[in-house]
Design goal:
This protein is α/β, with parallel strands linked by helices. About 35% of the residues lie in helices and about 20% in strands. It has eleven helices and eight strands.
């Protein structure tokens, strides 16, 4: 298993925290987390970084508004402005490490950010993996999404524990890790200023989450979508909608899987991602 370090970099006037491993490898991957309460790069991608860091240079940033990244002085931003700021975080890390082009793997909000990165500067994005990604049409916000975005209406550790269980199809897959996940995320959420900040990170109009079809059909990158069939936060309809418009794309739907395929179906997720990103000669050995 590869090791990684947690590093700091000033981006857009605030300190960005990110995990970094596999330095010196020929290709780089950015793993981009979602918007769940207390989300950050390591809680989403810890085990994935250890495996993929064996052959890729890997990064997992804490997006502004999440994790241990510093809260900027100006937080009066629209959802699109927050998204652009997160794209700039990734590009600043790339520039700092001399990386001209990288693969992007985005979960949920991280998928939306990945597609916005292509709209901002497509030359920086190689292949694209969207896992449980937002950005496509769905029947509407689910009850689970409403509870998530309204977490601070009942900011208890019990409420957070329920949310973490709902992210997966079967919480037994989390084993003993669930309490450490809940505790770490809860401590992050209780940081000064988070109660006021977190609700403002989401769009007032759900339509703002959608990537316009006119933009999707201009995505030239090879794109793999992975989606849990039982995802209650971003229904599989989102990836099916994206599939209609992204020209060079494919979709794999995993049964008995919720929003965290990289945890619930870890071996399958790694297999699919590695085969998609790698040349045949570079596929990880079993």
């Amino acid at each position: 298993m590869a090791t990684f370090e947690v590093k700091n970099l000033m981006t857009e006037g605030f300190n960005t925290v990110y995990a970094h491993g596999g330095e010196g490898q020929d290709e780089a991957i950015f793993f981009l987390h979602g918007s769940g309460p207390g989300a950050n790069g390591l809680s989403n991608w810890n085990k994935v970084l250890k495996v993929m860091g064996e052959k890729y240079e890997v990064f997992a940033p804490d997006f502004v508004g999440f994790g241990n990244t510093e809260i900027p002085e100006n937080t009066d931003l629209t959802f699109w402005e927050w998204t652009t700021l997160r794209v700039k975080q990734v590009f600043a890390i790339m520039e700092h490490h001399g990386i001209e082009k990288a693969h992007f793997v985005g979960n949920s909000m991280g998928g939306i950010i990945s597609m916005h990165a292509i709209m901002y500067d497509e030359s920086k994005v190689d292949k694209l993996v969207l896992m449980g990604s937002g950005g496509g049409k769905t029947p509407g916000p689910t009850p689970e999404i409403v509870r998530m975005t309204g977490f601070f209406n009942d900011p208890s550790i019990e409420s957070l524990r329920n949310l973490m269980k709902w992210f997966v199809y079967d919480e037994s897959i989390l084993g003993d890790d669930i309490e450490s996940i809940v505790q770490t995320r809860y401590e992050n959420l209780m940081r000064p200023g988070m109660k006021e900040l977190y609700p403002t990170l989401f769009p007032k109009n759900p339509m703002e989450l959608l990537i316009p079809p006119s933009a999707l059909r201009r995505i030239k990158q090879k794109t793999l979508m992975i989606h849990g069939y039982e995802d209650q936060f971003v229904p599989v309809d989102s990836s099916q909608s994206l599939l209609k418009h992204i020209p060079n794309s494919e979709l794999v739907i995993l049964k008995q899987c919720g929003h965290w395929a990289q945890i619930e179906k870890a071996e399958r997720f790694l297999e699919l991602t590695d085969q998609f990103l790698a040349d045949e000669a570079k596929v990880l050995s079993n």
